[in-house]
Write a structure and sequence with these properties.
Blueprint: E1 2-9, H1 13-25, E2 31-35, E3 69-72, E4 76-80, E5 85-88, E6 93-101, E7 105-107, E8 117-119, H2 123-135, E9 138-142, H3 146-157, E10 161-165, H4 178-190, E11 194-196, E12 201-207, E13 210-215, E14 220-223, E15 225-228, E16 232-234, H5 237-241, E17 250-251, E18 263-265, E19 270-274, E20 279-281, H6 286-300, E21 312-317, E22 320-326, E23 333-340, E24 344-351, E25 354-361, H7 367-375, H8 382-385
Parallel strand pairs: 1-2, 1-6, 2-3, 6-18, 8-15, 9-10, 9-15, 10-11, 17-19
Antiparallel strand pairs: 4-5, 5-6, 7-16, 12-13, 13-14, 19-20, 21-22, 22-25, 23-24, 24-25
């Protein structure tokens, strides 16, 4: 039974950031990191962005092994908070002084028992899809949200023919105002992407050397590969079985402590207090993973700082890109302030006169101004926001 002063469950960006936070305050305390993945921590956003644009694979690794002992390819199956013990799927047990749950999320899967669908989430998924893309020509991408839109763009940029199938009216339809979402439909079509909107996938079957995707509306598409990006679910089972408080994620206080002594949690699976939204929420993006993981590590090593960071997220879609903070739902009241329509501007998301989210479309270096605006009480009207965030 191995003992660690600091034990981290989860080998993503959150777990890596925690090792960095620990080392800022404790240079020698023994750190162990258990990960289900066979690969050490890496920059996950590059899987759908940079690696398809030619970024070398060597650049994505976080070198976590310089700070921690890595226990890879293991799934933690038991946690005993009272005795401070952890057990993995190979029967090995570990003890800890302080524990971090950085368990992340698992891809939402279609109700289809089919191994031909690549549920794009980790480095192994990237390797599998990249090999297919090197050999094949046509791909179906299921989902028009964050990952689906990025993967359709990535595959198209490496010369593949792509068909997108999604439930909504338009790409990014849950986030973008309707006029921008419809513009993105036209933009993707101009890039050569076939769009099948307002439709679902009912089956994916192998027929000869190819796959046949059938939709709810009765369409049939022959293809070489199928990739799905339809969201994730937080991995909370371990925490739940150990008796930790769960509510849309693992609930933490302002110091990222869970309901059990000496157990912290951070990242995609965590329900935390968002200072600008003034409520508890979950955020599934890189910026939150890195900042939260680092602070959790610092607090495990004796720090006592509050997590008051306002996370941002970003996406690259062909030549377009955006950065955003807060809640960005197309169901909210939106105010679009375009410098050049659909090419460069700011979209504000309002609720009861408060700015609850800001999306910066091809509008760079303004995230901190967007964060500051979210902290203002308002109330704001549409006219108040025109020109509020200005280009430098």
């Amino acid at each position: 039974m191995k003992h660690y002063k600091y034990l981290i469950i989860g080998g993503g960006l959150t777990g890596d950031a925690a090792t960095r936070g620990i080392r800022e305050l404790d240079e020698k305390g023994k750190i162990g990191l258990i990960s289900m993945e066979a690969d050490p921590p890496y920059m996950r956003p590059n899987l759908s962005k940079g690696l398809w644009k030619g970024r070398p694979v060597e650049k994505i690794w976080r070198k976590t092994e310089d700070r921690a002992e890595l226990i890879l390819g293991r799934k933690v199956t038991g946690l005993d908070p009272k005795n401070k013990t952890v057990r993995d799927d190979q029967g090995d047990e570990y003890t800890y002084d302080k524990l971090l749950l950085a368990t992340g999320g698992s891809p939402i899967r279609l109700p289809l028992d089919n191994e031909n669908i690549v549920y794009f989430r980790d480095y192994k998924d990237y390797q599998r899809l990249r090999k297919l893309a090197d050999e094949k020509e046509h791909f179906v991408v299921i989902g028009g949200g964050f990952i689906g839109s990025e993967m359709a763009a990535a595959l198209t940029m490496v010369g593949k023919k792509v068909t997108m199938i999604f439930l909504e009216d338009a790409i990014g339809g849950l986030v973008f105002p309707p006029d921008l979402a419809e513009h993105m439909n036209e933009y993707y079509r101009e890039k050569g992407v076939e769009l099948i909107k307002n439709d679902s996938v009912t089956s994916v079957q192998q027929e000869g050397a190819r796959l046949v995707v059938r939709t709810g509306s009765g369409r049939s598409i022959e293809t070489d590969g199928v990739v799905a990006g339809i969201g994730i679910r937080p991995n909370v089972e371990l925490a739940q079985e150990a008796g930790l408080k769960i509510d849309n994620g693992i609930v933490v206080n302002k110091y990222l402590e869970t309901s059990k002594r000496d157990i912290y949690a951070a990242g995609d699976a965590v329900n935390f207090y968002h200072p600008a939204l003034e409520k508890h929420t979950r955020v599934e993006h890189e910026d939150n993973a890195v900042f939260m993981g680092k602070l959790a590590g610092q607090n495990m090593a004796g720090g006592k700082d509050k997590y008051d960071h306002i996370p941002m997220f970003y996406s690259d879609l062909f030549e377009f890109g955006y950065e955003a903070v807060g809640e960005t739902s197309s169901k909210m009241e939106t105010v679009s302030d375009w410098q050049e329509k659909f090419q460069k501007g700011v979209i504000y998301y309002l609720e009861s006169g408060r700015v609850r989210g800001v999306l910066l479309w091809n509008f760079w270096k303004q995230v901190n101004n967007a964060r500051a605006l979210m902290m203002e009480k308002g109330p704001f009207k549409a006219d108040d926001l025109i020109g509020r965030i200005k280009d430098e």
